[in-house]
Amino acid sequence: xxxxxxxxxxxxxxxxxxxxxxxxxxxxxxxxxxxxxxxxxxxxxxxxxxxxxxxxxxxxxxxxxxxxxxxxxxxxxxxxxxxxxxxxxxxxxxxxxxxxxxxxxxxxxxxxxxxxxxxxxxxxxxxxxxxxxxxxxxxxxxxxxxxxxxxxxxxxxxxxxxxxxxxxxxxxxxxxxxxxxxxxxxxxxxxxxxxxxxxxxxxxxxxxxxxxxxxxxxxxxxxxxxxxxxxxxxxxxxxxxxxxxxxxxxxxxxxxxxxxxxxxxxxxxxxxxxxxxxxxxxxxxxxxxxxxxxxxxxxxxxxxxxxxxxxxxxxxxxxxxxxxxxxxxxxxxx
Amino acid sequence: xxxxxxxxxxxxxxxxxxxxxxxxxxxxxxxxxxxxxxxxxxxxxxxxxxxxxxxxxxxxxxxxxxxxxxxxxxxxxxxxxxxxxxxxxxxxxxxxxxxxxxxxxxxxxxxxxxxxxxxxxxxxxxxxxxxxxxxxxxxxxxxxxxxxxxxxxxxxxxxxxxxxxxxxxxxxxxxxxxxxxxxxxxxxxxxxxxxxxxxxxxxxxxxxxxxxxxxxxxxxxxxxxxxxxxxxxxxxxxxxxxxxxxxxxxxxxxxxxxxxxxxxxxxxxxxxxxxxxxxxxxxxxxx
Lengths: 334, 287
Prior knowledge:
The complex is a heterodimer of chains A (334) and B (287). By secondary structure, chain A is an alpha+beta fold. Chain A has helices at 42-50, 92-102, 107-120, 136-148, 166-183, 194-200, 218-223, 228-233, 244-248; strands spanning 4-13, 16-26, 31-35, 57-62, 65-66, 77-80, 154-158, 186-191, 203-208, 211-216, 240-242, 254-257, 262-265, 271-280, 284-290, 298-303, 313-318, 324-326, 332-333.
């Protein structure tokens, strides 16, 4: 079990309301990702669920029971922190065993669970080392180990991968996803990285200034962003959002087209411009196009290695059926 | 400082400071050693020649020697215990966000700025005086007989005075250590179900161990030599004669420089034993 329900939850620090009334249901076994730019209140929301911050009004229910006034330890949730928050003077074994010791569990059972966790997370080789002697990825795994031995009803992750280098991040991303498939426990994951959100989530919650902009599966958000904020935030590189006359031709205040939905053609494209920066990734090339007659710079993805360099003229053809239209309030027009 | 020339230049530049410091240390040390082997009675015939180890034997066989070592250790350990325990408590309190934090912190540090002589006199006359002291008023208010602190409870009184002086130092060092504790660790422990006293025991105290060792090390060095507090309060009476006070008495009250110097050498040895002992603990704690 691990159903978390937020009902009209608000949070204020002094006079500043960082989270206006908010409703959200996280279903049992779901991998939910809170994503948004920094300062959007996603970490605060996670800390409210964890009980590390008191909510200003509203209710939090965990597994159908009111948990609004429960202390963190009694909510049955385990959290993995951004800084890992390992206890530096304890060995890996003692770190993982700590929550069980605090629960006054039988030592034999503690040993069994710690060894099982170490097995799952490949920690057995350095179980007697201290956190200071471990690499970033290993520390991360110890932090996850400390969370899973408690067998919580849900895991909370607060930007757990932001301190790792890019290669390790991809690896840990897979490991956490695998772990979720294996444990089938509810996971709530906070990140500012939309790639992490897209690759890991069953359900993404996009937040801005404490307000939920959209909730949905990664592909739902990609295909049908509800407003210009979600449209610009989800997808990499960013969707091209074009206003002005060009949008008016399509009866919209803003139109959006993803870089991967624009074809580079030899001649007679709908738009034509000069190539600015070209980012060659090998499999793809991203071109930033200027002087198209539009006010915005257009980003285009071309498959393979196209030989266009700075200053060359390029012809573009957006795929009309992939065009997103938004009204003056930034909301989607269907 | 990579090249040969810059290295020798650096040595040349540092030489005056090194020589000055060495001289400052070595001259008194050698003079003490020299006098400790002489019969030197300034008011009774001056330097009267070689004494061999007589001074050393006389100093330790004197009935005042062992009690003075004991007194020294009691004061040092007593003050250390009080300043460390209360230092931790006050540091934890000062770490809490309160209104007027800056002012409170300065007030807490204030006793450290008061000269030892002055603070001892203030304690002696304003607090511990059996007739007019604040404590005697307090005792009488509750109908109790006032305590003659400095004669009846002389050692605890001196420990109290010295602790008051050194508490700010301990608090300050420990406060910086408390502030450097990662708050996410405490939150993680909270999520792990550790109540506050276990968070203190398993997280805060191990985190503070390094700072505590530093406090103990520095304070011990200074506490072994406390003098002014005893001089202006009990004058060494009522069992408050420490080793340094005994040396002072031998040199100035008995006018026996040779005997006092021998005591000084013993004090150096004692301080070094303590220092080596502490350094080993610190070495372990400082990694």
